[in-house]
């Protein structure tokens, strides 16, 4: 059978349990296996004469078998094999006195025992590596790794070098150990290289036997990178690779799994990191070019198309300089015959909504449709209210001007998954009619029932996780592609933006409109009763002054897990955070509401609750009562994280703040102070002083710069947690590239990719690279498919 990177693991291995275990790691094909990289390598095992080995530590030595005994096990089926070995010669080389040790093996399988017996026959010269124990007055090695000199290796030196080399360590789970992962990968590399029997390493495990050492080891001979280079062709063009001093892909992959030393392992990582950067940048630059060749909806802005300008004039405030610039850029983009692809990054409260409404009106003015997609129901409703109000005022102004009412009516409709069927049908029908309209939606807009034949603009709000594959899918879904505007308040460091949004034009809104005052941020130790009490007195005073307060908790009730925040999984799991807070259960909405109801400081104040579990009607009512001041204190989960805009809200309290990501806390903090009032954020923590969690909170306590906070967050937690799996590369790509630390790599790769594309825009001379680019883009389209 010929084996390629696409060959499935299950067709190579007879051991079903092993196949299932690998599957649980996401390893289904040979490619998955060989790119399942170790996260570190062990230190080299020291070579020591037996006398110098301390019990319990790993060591390598050489010796001769003096006696071999095989005994059936008394209590259960199976055999015990014991080889007495002495290290006379080896000890003398190390100027030590000779000694002896027992090598012990257990097995149910007669054929395995026979095989071992022939290897460890009396007089065999061995190199041994393993962890020592002490038993029957003697040093003992249970299931050690053994190499027979003159058979497995030519010399003692070669054997010792082999067994003492650093070993890769993999992320394992309860179903499979790091050693077995390693063994499986090496087996597949050997199969790929055309050497080694694919089946040898997968003899079925013996029930009840100890997990390791039972199976024959696959890594007897090192896989040759040369043999592999046909099966694992290079992706980065050779001249570029060589100019960077990088390894061939095959060589790098072998060095990841079978490093000769730590230096080689590091070189392999650098090489593969560059490869990831190069593929992703080539893909993004190609995608960017692809956009220009796609027909879009030109939406002109001129004397007869004045709707956006009229809208801006109808606002009760002037745009900030930043808003003005972004509006201009968008107007220019949308007038072009190919689709806009723009990312708008703007601090919480920087006024992104009016910018996107102007863009939506530009689409409508040209006789087309526009949709705004919000990440949550609450946010969609909130947008619907503000935007329909803005548009109503605009229509009224225009009607007053012209004295004719109906003509200026611009339909603004809401579309969510939870809507009543009849209402939804009406909205879907309006969209399907192709009539100009503005649709405010949740992800319901991505379901196939939503058809808008004249959709000229898609705005994605607060969704930095709208990845390149989703953007491509959206573009390919329509014959004429809509303009795309992605808005996010999660500041993304420049190189991270290049890595994930390298196909987009990026605008930023840095200033906050209307002279907003900075939010006073105070970290409060939960155990500090005095401060906690003063905080509630403060909240009482603010509420009495007509303001509102949010109280945020990570869980809904005592029995629930941390509530999935709208963007998924930003909460740290207890094993990531340290001592103290990890063991204490997280606070819940239900529990905190109960406690607040009993607080004398809040007596007589109506307290409402809100969580992702509430139905839409409840959510709407609760937000309405909060906005009007009917119930001025709202205990909620992170459903309020993004975009919710109640100008009178001046205080936010976050319980278990030490367990949230910094960018998320920054987002939450942005919920207050939106009405120009003074405002406060209280981050309640149970983290030990000096812990990393406490250090993280100190950063946000002293900084209101979103970019700085995001940078610190990325450094302290890693990109996957902060930006989500889709953005950190999904399943297949960007496994090694670190967006903050590898900034230089990304920039360099972008330059080299751009140079290559200028010479060969279709990558016709680089078929392997072209395939990798396609894989990168197609990595994960599930976001659009599952809604
Ligand atoms: P975000 O960027 O977080 O989405 P919003 O668009 O919700 O921010 O705007 C926050 C608040 O600022 C809203 O109440 C909005 O009406 C107001 N706003 C927006 N632009 C201006 C401006 N130029 N001057 C004054 N207030 C503004
Ligand atoms: Mg917003």
Automatic annotation (TrEMBL):
- Which EC number(s) does UniProt give? 3.6.4.12
What's the domain of life for this entry?
Bacteria
Output the GO biological process annotations, alphabetical, semicolon-separated: DNA repair
Where do the record's region annotations for Disordered lie? 197-225, 557-579
| GO-annotated molecular function | ATP binding; DNA binding; DNA helicase activity; hydrolase activity
Q: Which CDD domains does the record match to this protein?
A: RecG_wedge_OBF (cd04488)
| Annotated Pfam families | DEAD, Helicase_C, RecG_dom3_C
Membrane-spanning intervals of the chain: none
Q: Where is the Helicase C-terminal domain?
A: 567-715
The record's InterPro entries line, in alphabetical order, gives:
DEAD/DEAH_box_helicase_dom (IPR011545), Helicase_ATP-bd (IPR014001), Helicase_C-like (IPR001650), NA-bd_OB-fold (IPR012340), P-loop_NTPase (IPR027417), RecG/Mfd (IPR047112), RecG_dom3_C (IPR045562)
Q: Which UniProt keywords apply?
A: ATP-binding, DNA damage, DNA repair, DNA-binding, Helicase, Hydrolase, Nucleotide-binding
The record places domain Helicase ATP-binding at 333-509
The cross-references to Gene3D superfamilies, in alphabetical order and at most eight, read: P-loop containing nucleotide triphosphate hydrolases
Q: Which residue stretches does the UniProt record annotate as biased composition, category Low complexity?
A: 197-212
> Which residue positions does the secretion signal occupy?
none
Q: Which SUPFAM superfamilies match?
A: Nucleic acid-binding proteins, P-loop containing nucleoside triphosphate hydrolases
Query: PANTHER family this protein is in?
Result: ATP-DEPENDENT DNA HELICASE HOMOLOG RECG, CHLOROPLASTIC
**What is the official name of this protein in its record?**
ATP-dependent DNA helicase RecG
Organism of derivation: Bifidobacterium psychraerophilum
């Amino acid at each position: 059978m010929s084996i390629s990177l696409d060959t499935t693991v299950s067709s190579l291995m007879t051991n079903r349990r092993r196949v299932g275990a690998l599957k649980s790691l996401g390893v289904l094909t040979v490619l998955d296996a060989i790119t399942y990289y170790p996260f570190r390598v062990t230190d080299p095992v020291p070579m020591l004469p037996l006398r110098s080995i301390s019990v319990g530590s790993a060591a390598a030595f050489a010796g001769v078998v003096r006696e071999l005994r095989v005994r059936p096990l008394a209590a259960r089926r199976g055999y015990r094999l014991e080889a007495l070995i002495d290290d006379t010669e080896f000890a003398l080389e190390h100027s030590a006195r000779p000694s002896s040790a027992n090598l012990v093996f257990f097995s149910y399988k007669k054929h395995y025992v026979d095989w071992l017996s022939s290897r460890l026959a009396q007089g065999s010269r061995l190199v041994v590596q393993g962890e020592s124990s002490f038993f029957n007055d003697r040093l003992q090695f249970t299931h050690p790794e053994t190499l027979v000199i003159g058979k497995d290796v030519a010399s003692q030196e070669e054997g010792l070098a082999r067994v003492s080399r650093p070993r890769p360590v993999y992320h394992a789970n309860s179903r499979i150990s790091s050693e077995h992962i390693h063994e499986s990968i090496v087996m597949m590399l050997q199969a790929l290289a055309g050497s080694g029997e694919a089946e040898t390493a997968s003899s079925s495990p013996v029930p009840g036997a100890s997990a390791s050492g039972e199976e024959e080891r696959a890594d007897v001979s090192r896989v040759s990178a040369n043999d592999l280079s046909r099966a694992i062709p290079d992706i980065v063009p050779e001249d570029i690779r060589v100019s960077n001093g990088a390894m061939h892909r095959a060589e790098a992959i072998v060095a990841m799994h079978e490093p000769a030393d730590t230096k080689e392992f590091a070189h392999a990582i650098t090489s593969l990191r560059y490869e990831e950067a190069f593929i992703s940048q080539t893909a993004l630059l190609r995608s960017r070019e692809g956009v220009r060749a796609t027909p879009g909806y030109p939406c002109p802005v001129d004397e007869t198309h004045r709707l956006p300008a009229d809208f801006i004039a109808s606002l009760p405030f002037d745009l900030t300089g930043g808003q003005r610039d972004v509006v201009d850029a968008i107007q220019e983009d949308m007038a072009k015959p190919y689709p806009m692809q723009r990312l708008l990054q703007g601090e919480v409260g920087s006024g992104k909504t009016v910018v996107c409404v102007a863009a939506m009106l530009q689409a409508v003015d040209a006789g087309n449709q526009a949709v705004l997609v919000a990440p949550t129901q609450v946010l969609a409703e909130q947008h619907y209210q503000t935007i329909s109000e803005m548009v109503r005022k605009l229509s009224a102004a225009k009607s007053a001007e012209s004295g004719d009412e109906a003509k200026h009516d611009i339909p603004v409709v809401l579309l969510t998954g939870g809507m009543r069927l009849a209402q939804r049908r009406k909205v879907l029908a309006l969209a399907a009619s192709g009539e100009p309209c503005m649709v405010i939606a949740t992800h319901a807009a991505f379901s196939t029932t939503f058809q808008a034949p004249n959709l000229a603009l898609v705005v994605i709000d607060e969704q930095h996780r709208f990845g390149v594959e989703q953007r491509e899918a959206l573009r390919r879904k329509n014959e004429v592609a809509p303009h795309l505007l992605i808005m996010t308040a999660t500041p993304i460091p420049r190189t991270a933006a290049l890595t994930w949004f390298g196909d987009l034009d990026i605008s930023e809104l840095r200033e906050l409109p209307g002279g907003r005052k900075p939010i006073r941020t105070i970290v409060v130790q939960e155990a500090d009763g005095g401060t906690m009490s003063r905080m509630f007195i403060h909240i009482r005073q603010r509420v009495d002054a007509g303001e509102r307060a949010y109280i945020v908790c990570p869980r809904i009730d005592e029995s629930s897990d941390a509530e999935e925040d709208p963007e998924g999984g930003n909460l740290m799991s207890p094993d990531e955070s340290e001592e103290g807070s990890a063991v204490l259960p997280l606070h819940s909405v239900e529990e905190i509401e109960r406690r607040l109801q009993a607080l004398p400081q809040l007596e007589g104040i109506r307290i409402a609750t809100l969580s992702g579990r509430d139905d839409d009607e409840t959510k709407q009512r609760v937000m309405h009562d909060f906005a009007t001041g009917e119930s001025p204190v709202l205990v909620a989960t992170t459903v309020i994280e993004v975009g919710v805009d109640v100008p009178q809200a001046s205080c936010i309290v976050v319980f278990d703040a030490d367990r949230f990501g910094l960018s998320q806390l920054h987002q939450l903090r942005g919920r207050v102070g939106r009405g120009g009032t003074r405002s406060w954020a209280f981050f309640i923590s149970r983290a030990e002083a000096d812990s990393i969690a406490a250090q993280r909170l100190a950063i946000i306590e002293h900084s209101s710069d979103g970019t700085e906070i995001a940078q610190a967050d990325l450094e302290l937690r890693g990109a996957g947690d902060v930006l989500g799996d889709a953005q950190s590369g999904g399943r297949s790509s960007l496994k090694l590239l670190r967006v903050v630390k590898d900034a230089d790599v990304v920039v360099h790769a972008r330059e080299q990719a751009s140079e290559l594309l200028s010479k060969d825009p279709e990558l016709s001379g680089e078929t392997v690279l072209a395939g990798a680019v396609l894989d990168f883009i197609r990595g994960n389209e599930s976001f659009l498919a599952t809604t």
